[in-house]
Specification:
The strands form two sheets. The protein has an eight-stranded mixed β-sheet with strand order 4-3-5-2-8-9-1-10, with helices on both faces. A two-stranded antiparallel sheet has the order 6-7. The chain is built from twelve helices and ten strands. Helix 1 packs across helix 12 and helix 6 runs parallel beside helix 8. It is an alpha/beta fold and 370 residues long.
């Protein structure tokens, strides 16, 4: 009897917490997103006079909005442990980020772990499934210049043309640096069976923890944004920042996301926090752009090899609870990514203050004109 009472009490607390968190996040969205839009409407004269300054301001507000989303998970005890290469020294360079995709929580995880990487979040561009366009954050991403891609064979060729046009129009003009995509083209649970069947028919590696990547978007990005080709690969740029801007992409950053006990985090969990506090592990590996082939067949082999490596990394992690050490080292080093609670509080306070301000301004104009 006592056990049943304890379980009922625990369930009641989880439900109450979920309702309170959901209510807060609805209000958070209702004040933050309209404020972001209204600020940018007011700043349109700045866009006409100095577009670089306008997109700088937009990027700062975009980073703040992503920090709010990060704070939802961080406040629930959902933290990130980082492994592998240090990406901070290249945070100002142009790079393409390829990540494995298990659930909607992957996006939230990246929003969190990239917050302390200089101007990365402010200047990044996302490639995401078109369904995200219809979420609460869709309007923000649309304004920021992210690209929503429609999956499936009937749409593939047209989407790649639209992607190239999008990159030509927005990547350089809005001073973007990192472009993030999930080459698998869908969640692991949805694509695994199809991928394994394809691998078996074509004598390709059999993967359990990731799926074989799709090539289209990656190839378009590398050909559109990469530096001049040399011998079938992308040429290396100089180390200076000015050269980085003129020579295009400088790096490919391979991110592998691993969840405790192989249980992916979805966005519902991130919002409602019905799962106990847990740590998500993120592994970084950096490749100079000169090592990346650009022709279709060599690039396909190169990208397949990256996902074979991801498979090995994840298999090791799920077996041992840690990623393997880099070659030549005996032990892998990890670091917990932390968010500054004071900074998060100030951003949330600014969002609610802005919401209150815009409410009063709009109410005033309503009474004046109606």
């Amino acid at each position: 009897m006592a056990l049943m009472v304890e379980r009922a009490r625990r369930l009641g607390w989880i439900l109450l917490k979920a309702v309170l968190r959901f209510s807060f996040m609805v209000i958070n969205n209702l004040v933050a997103i309209p404020s972001y839009v209204l600020y940018l409407i007011v700043l349109q004269p700045v866009r006409l006079m100095d577009s670089r300054t306008f997109w700088h301001i937009e990027g700062v507000m975009f980073k703040w909005l992503l920090a709010m989303v990060s704070s939802w998970g961080w406040a629930a005890g959902y933290t990130v442990m980082e492994w592998g290469d240090d990406v901070r020294p290249i945070s100002e360079d142009a790079a393409v980020v390829i990540a494995n995709h298990q659930a909607t929580g992957d996006v939230c995880t990246l929003m969190m772990c990239l917050q302390d990487k200089g101007t990365v979040v402010r200047k990044m561009m996302w490639l995401m499934d078109h369904v995200f366009k219809y979420t609460n954050f869709g309007l923000v991403s649309l304004i920021h210049g992210d690209f929503f891609i429609r999956q499936g064979k009937p749409h593939r060729d047209k989407q790649l043309i639209l992607l190239k046009d999008h990159l030509d129009k927005y990547y350089h003009s809005r001073d973007r640096k990192w472009i993030v995509l999930f080459p698998e083209g869908g969640f692991l649970r949805k694509r695994r069976e199809t991928s394994q069947s394809f691998s078996k028919k074509n004598n390709l590696p059999f993967l359990k923890h990731v799926t074989l990547p799709r090539m289209g978007a990656t190839e378009v990005i590398l050909k559109s944004l990469g530096p001049q080709q040399e011998n079938g690969s992308l040429a290396a740029g100089d180390a200076t920042r000015s050269a980085s801007k003129s020579r295009g992409l400088q790096w490919v950053i391979d991110i592998t996301i691993a969840y405790t006990k192989a249980k992916p985090m979805d966005i519902q969990t991130w919002i409602l926090a019905y799962r106990s506090p847990t740590v998500t592990h993120v592994h970084y590996r950096i490749y100079p752009i000169k090592d990346v082939p650009v022709e279709t067949e060599p690039l396909t082999n190169w990208l397949y090899q990256r996902f074979v490596e991801k498979e090995e990394l994840l298999a090791h992690f799920y077996e041992t609870g840690a990623f393997p050490p880099p070659k030549g080292q005996k032990e892998a080093v990890s670091k917990e990514m932390t968010l500054d609670p004071v900074w998060l509080f100030l951003i949330q306070s600014l969002a609610f203050a802005s919401g209150y301000m815009w409410y009063n301004i709009l109410q005033y104009f309503y009474y004046v004109f109606f």
